[in-house]
Amino acid sequence: MRKNADYLTGINFETAPGVEVSNDKALFANRVGGSFGEPPMEDTGRHGAVAAQLRRVIQEPGMRKPELNRITAALRNLTPMQRRVVAAELALLDKQPATTLIIEGRFATTAACPHCQAKDAIRYGHANGLQRYRCRECGKTFSALTGTPLCGLHNRGKWLGQAEALRDGLTLHKVADALHIHVSTAHRWRHRFLALPMAIQPQALTGIAEADETMFLLSFKGKRSGLDRKARKRGGKASKRGLSHEQVPVLVARDRAGVTMDCVLKAMDMTTLSAALKPFLTKDVVLCTDGSLALAAAARHIGVEHHAVNLSAGIRVDGAWHVQNVNAYHSRLKAWVCKFRGVATCYLANYLGWFRALDREHGNDPKPAQWLTMALGGTA
Ligand SMILES: [Zn+2]
After folding, report:
1. Residue 180 CB partners (closer than 8 Å, separation 6+)
2. Residue 43 CA, ligand 1 centroid: distance in Å
3. Are 103 and 230 part of one and the same domain?
4. pLDDT digit string (tens) for 244-297?
5. How far is the CA of 187 from the centre of ligand 1 (A)?
6. Rounded to the nearest whole angstrom, what is the distance from the C-alpha of residue 139 to the centroid of ligand 1?
7. Parent domain of 122
8. Least packed by Cβ within 10 Å: which of 17, 192, 257, 345?
């Protein structure tokens, strides 16, 4: 089959090899005659406008009656061919799963070209059940899925199930069982779904902000060769206490309103800590730490007020100064991560972002649709 495009109508369709098509009118006649493939489902001209209106009616259950009457009146004016186009459009809409609506929702206002970021695109047929667009600037085609981490994944009908699994913090085997997918697929989906949420950090911490580090075991989970030590079983323990080459430090800062930032640290020196904290601290924030010298130096370097709680002297709370919120966050994070029986260090940031998204809602877990929206680059 050879793809053709009718540039007058913006409709794409296919012709059998060897079929000679002389001009756009002939192509259109072929298509209308139904010789090749399914009836067209594109929005073109007046019937396209009616179909677009219908789509809006279905998506907005609370639509006012006069508007609905106006659309049904417009339907009576359609020619038989136009009615077929509208019927096909409705059938497509009926079949569209909730996932597709969320994906298409990205372009609800404007379709931005993922290749050149221009916002000047025309509708250009459908591909893989999604509206396709053609950029007027660079000429490339795209859909609302192009350029997102979910592009190229199959089984779209199960994506909301995957989003639900993220909300519920299911292990890979449980996701695989629930969605009837392979464990390796569940793994791929999990990290594609987390690729963008992991980057959602707060704008800034305000008021009193507590900062502290916590350690995660360095893990090459899933890696089968090339380890320079004997593999640990199921999470395991470091052979030495405290910071060592077997541990990965994670910095968490949380203000008293519960706004939280975190990051995996490459080192625990002043330069690394201040670089990690600075983007999140406003000038008038008061930083509270457990007396770590590197954090104190980082606070000085950033130029914010700093109070250290002398934990080594047994002082846990000194008036308003304590790090109990951030330490409680560490405990919840560790307990949550524990059920995954060790996380590979290369994915640690994904798990931090996953937990942060759950925490942001203060126990009111994001709904599957919100997870899917976040995975596509939107804010939940
Ligand atoms: Zn473009």
Report:
1. none
2. 21
3. no
4. 678 899 999 999 999 999 999 998 899 999 999 999 998 889 999 987 899 999
5. 32
6. 6
7. 98-142
8. 17
